[in-house]
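Question (not urgent): is this output format expected?
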Amino acid sequence: MLNVTQLEKIVELRHALHACPERSGCEARTMATLRAFLEENTSLRVEDMGGWLLATHWEGDGLPTLGFRADMDAIPVEGTACDARHGCGHDGHSAVLCGLGLLLEGRRLGKNVRLIFQCAEETGEGAKRICETWPGLAGLAALYALHNIPGFPKGAVLTRRGCFACASCGHVVRVVGRPAHAAYPDDGANPIELLSGLALETPGMIRDILAGDDRLLMRTLIGLLAGGENFGLSASEGQLNQTLRGHRKADIDALICDIETCARAGCEALGMRCDFELRDVFPDTTNDDALYDDALARFRKAGLSTLELDEPMRWSEDFGWYTKRVPAFYFGIGAGEDWPGLHTDAFEFDDTLIPVALKALEALL
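Got this back:
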């Protein structure tokens, strides 16, 4: 475990990161701060990977390689074009991973360790990019990550077999019809009834996909935009925005297929055209069974308090992209039942969680 002086350094680093929040894909100052800390305080090989940072403890070719990932982006400040704030605790996650870097100093583990400081978690693009472009990912025997989670006992290590966090995406349906005078609406093609029907029919599609099985698949209506305030003109364009969420990305994919099939059929019948868009796509973050068993045993051996979650988190994590490529395990650290919720104005990462998080990561080494 880190000594008092080292822990103070990690807390100071967390505060420095908190003071320079940057939006997804714009984490230049954050990366510079992390790199400077690692190069000053460790002998890790630190590399700028083009938008994300990689720090490596290498003991030799042919040895197993473990990966540990932290996110480093901040969340946007609503109503602004460029402002951001650390309202999700990624400053704490990155500081903790630097603490693991300090723990690696002078140690021989019989394995190699890669520390991944990842950009753009909030948009789902950071992990996806690493999975698509970094060949080193395939060489990992296991990959680990954590998240602080308010609403649960402080310092408890939160685990779950299988799905830990839901898949989700934003789904947009755009329909273009034909304008007409409001007195002669049959001369045009108004998309409002079609889009409204889709919104009303989606729950039935969900029931058909689930077929009574006990797993989550849901949608949240975000917006139905059509027409305007010209009472002499029948609407000719519209857009339905829904957030789709579930335990399995496959269920969401099936729901999207049903919605789009229904929309195309309706447009064809009414002489309209449609197109679709996916935004903020996050796959389900599903833990590897063998890594789950191993991690739980290690946590308990280290004397950590563990809590098995009854159901997955409904929010999404782009760590799910990694779970589709390599054996991976994701877990939480309880921030306290009364700690302000993630993304709320009052939230800030609790520095007293750092020793617990480091103890959990050290156990996984």
